[in-house]
Amino acid sequence: MLDKQGIAKRIAKEIKDGYYVNLGIGIPTLVANYIPDTMDVVLQSENGLLGMGPFPFEGEEDPDTINAGKQTITMLPGSAIFDSAMSFGMIRAKKVNLTILGAMEVSENGDIANWKIPGKMVKGMGGAMDLVASAENIIVAMQHVNKAGESKLLPQCTLPLTGVRCVKKIVTELGVFDVLPEGCFKLLERAPGVSVEEIKQATAGKLIIEGDVPEISLIY
Which residues have a Cβ under 8 Å from the Cβ of 25 and sit 6 or more positions away? Predict the structure, then answer.
């Protein structure tokens, strides 16, 4: 299985040269550490930063320089800082090429639930609803099953929705999946050491498997 760093490494391979990318809270923030130096990629943080770099080394943190998840980050040369209105103007105007989000559940139709668990206190949905409503390319980084071992790739989401029919691809500790327009998950790659049968058993939603499914490679 992949750990969180492995999921982030695999998602980094989806980023193309010249992309503007928004990284959500959780596993997506780790993606910044695995973008090759040879690529020209601009990371946007919804709290008002364009040009986010990797996490700082211990002892080099600046408490005033944080991402949307309140983690300390670095800024690359040429970075820009602005207010939230400008940040969400970029998002709503579809200036971001790729959005990478975490999720608690994803349905086989591409619906995503990632902002609220009923009965638990939350400060708000943050920028997730703007991102899923505006982004044309959304990749989800998530755990395949919950702590009880129950699938989080479902026929229908059971938690309050953040967006509908918006997720294009999912990377979990078990594999890489496309979300097809007809309403199903398609297994593209499996994690090293994980069998197709294990992935079938861990996936509650409709799953399409065609031919031999290759193992995930984390090498560019």
Answer: 67, 68, 69, 102, 126
Q: Kindly indicate the confidence band of residue 124, based on its pLDDT and cuts at 50, 70 and 90.
A: low
Quick one: which of 129, 90, 136, 126 has its CA closest to 112? 129
Q: Which domains does the chain have, with CATH numbers?
A: 4-208 (3.40.1080.10)
pLDDT of residue 106: 98
> Whole-angstrom Cα distance, residue 69 to residue 47?
9
Residue 173 CA to residue 198 CA, distance in Å, equals 12
Using one digit for the tens of pLDDT, what is the confidence trace for 167-197?
Answer: 999 999 999 999 999 999 999 999 999 999 9
What is residue 123's predicted lDDT score, i.e. its pLDDT? 60
Q: pTM for the whole thing?
A: 0.92
Tell me which residues are annotated as active site.
46
User: What residues form DSSP beta bridges with 50?
Assistant: 44, 80
Tell me the C-alpha distance between 49 and 65, whole Å. Answer: 9
